[in-house]
Amino acid sequence: MLQISNAVSLADWEIEIHAIRAQGAGGQNVNKVSSAVHLRFDIRRSSLPAFYKERLLALSDQRISKDGVIVIKAQSHRTQDKNRDDALERLRELILSAVRTDKARRPTKPSRAARQRRMDSKTKRAQTKSLRGRVV
Q1: Looking at the DSSP assignment, which residues form a beta bridge with residue 37?
Q2: With 90 as the cut, is the pLDDT of residue 89 above it?
Q3: How far apart are CA 12 and CA 83, in angstroms?
Q4: Nearest to 20 by CA among 86, 64, 75, 87
Q5: Is the pLDDT of residue 96 over 80?
Q6: pTM
């Protein structure tokens, strides 16, 4: 079972995990051992709340197919268990990032004193540069 938050969790039957051979340069074991993990998660069939499903389907992430299936491939570790844990953690982070709401930005403007300091520094810099000119 994958715990997403205090109230939301995913059952094992909702997540398909298959072991595959890792890509990349060959080594002693790379062509013989299936250490990479391929994770598939169907958003529409899952037991996630409707709000989570809507937000996930609205994401423009290349890991989410048009059918609403999340596909994650983990092959950075040497062992299958670590790759499996990595894939599950990446799925958890993807779901959490979809439902996270950012704080609204309130537009601000610089104070009058800050604008004055900026103009003074520009004037001082211009005077310094003008002194570098040719002496007549």
Answers
A1: 19, 74
A2: yes
A3: 17
A4: 75
A5: yes
A6: 0.69
Q: Give, to the nearest 10 degrees, the angle between helix 50-58 and helix 80-99.
A: 100
- The two beta strands, 36-42 and 69-74, are antiparallel
- Would you state the structure tokens that stand for residue 69, as one six-digit string? 């299936």
| Dist. CA 35–CA 31, nearest whole Å | 10
Rounded mean pLDDT of 13-34? 78
Residue with token string 């930005």: 105
Asked if residues 70 and 43 have their Cβ atoms less than 8 Å apart, the reply is: yes
Residue showing tokens 């950075």: 76
30 token code pair: 């790379």
Q: Give all domains of the chain, ordered by start, each with its CATH number.
A: 2-99 (3.30.160.20)
> Residue 39 pairs with which residues in a beta bridge?
17, 72
Of residues 105, 84, 110, 99, the one with CA closest to residue 18: 84
Tracing tokens 């610089």 back to the chain, one arrives at 110
- Fill in the amino acid letter for 36: A
Amino acid identity, residue 67?
D
Strands (E), the chain: 2-3, 9-10, 15-20, 36-42, 69-74
The whole-number average pLDDT for the span 113-136 is: 93
